[in-house]
Amino acid sequence: MTTFEGSHDGKDMRVGIVCSRFNEFIVTALLDGAKRGLSSHGVSESNIDVVWVPGAFEIPIATKAMATSGRYDTLVTLGAVIRGETAHFEYVAGPVADSIAQIQLDTGMPIGFAVLTVENVEQAVERSGPGAGNKGEEAAIGAIEMANVLKALR
Ligand code: INI
Fold it and tell me: For residue range 59-87, what is the model confidence (pLDDT) as tens digits?
């Protein structure tokens, strides 16, 4: 029996992060978490590119451009869609998640997903704090693991 697992070693990995500016204070906290997760797992800061887009709806097109650029080993997407703030929550949150999943399948690029879809600001704050449970940090570490396991499979 052969078991494939991806390590959390990000040494020499090139990582792209797509951030949406809507609810910027939450996304900045997710970005802090993602950078923390990457640096504590060996990714050097000079190997990280960060791209900002206006809102979550614009994350997929920027992510696709990065995924097809040949410059990255893995990507991380960060955003915050808050139900209380928009009548079109469903029209933003669902398509973004579906599109990111599709980009992974179309391009083979692993993409960590921390586009929060929450009921209110309190829930978004809970998931983007400086301690454990920061979804940006979790997505970044998961992105490293997926890059390594896919490399092993290929
Ligand atoms: N974008 C978000 O990232 N989060 C939201 O909660 C949100 N709300 O509430 O509407 C939001 N809307 C903007 C959207 O992502 C696009 O940027 C906009 O529609 C322009 O295309």
Answer: 999 999 999 999 999 999 999 999 986 66
